[in-house]
Amino acid sequence: METKEKFLSFNLGVSDRAVISLQHITEVLQVSLPEICGVPQMPSSVLGIYNWRGEMLWLVDLEAMLGYSPISQGSNLLSKMMAIVLENKGKYLGLLVRQLIDIEWLDTKQMKPATAELFYPKISPFLQGYFINDSEEMLFNLDAITIIQAPTWGIHN
């Protein structure tokens, strides 16, 4: 049985790498900070709303959400960021990341369980597990559905 799936890989923080299954990714786009409309009274990881295909798309700083230093602050401030648009059951959420790396074919049978001592407490609830790729790097497998449904957003429209 074929257990390989396509994943999008990207950087997290300075040295970590993560992947999200392509089956939950609708689109990847470049966003510049001035295009994001800030919303008061939201958690700091929520950067605001972006006009995406005429829809309001909530944009979240994935690094800040997972306990890294925010990509939207200070010397990290990038004029252009990549947004990964996730979709689940008609709900959309944009994750802002530093840099996309590649599309990777990974064998889901090779995924290892995420144990608490390996990961920051903030990241654990959003992990399905992790892979070790051919270059011996650890790839965190983020769970798109858990991220979309995170209570943090209160965006249950």
Structure description:
This protein has 157 residues and is mainly beta. Helix content is 6%, strand content 46%. The chain is built from two helices and ten strands. Strands 8-1-2-10-9 form a five-stranded mixed beta sheet, with no helix packed on it. A five-stranded mixed beta sheet has the order 3-6-7-5-4. The radius of gyration is 15 Å and the shape is globular. It starts with a strand and ends in a 9-residue tail after the last helix. The mean pLDDT is 88.
Fold blueprint:
Elements: E1 4-12, E2 16-21, E3 25-32, E4 46-52, E5 55-61, H1 62-65, E6 80-88, E7 91-97, E8 100-107, E9 127-132, E10 138-142, H2 144-148
Structure keywords:
157 residues; globular; five-stranded mixed β-sheet; 2 helices; mainly beta; single chain
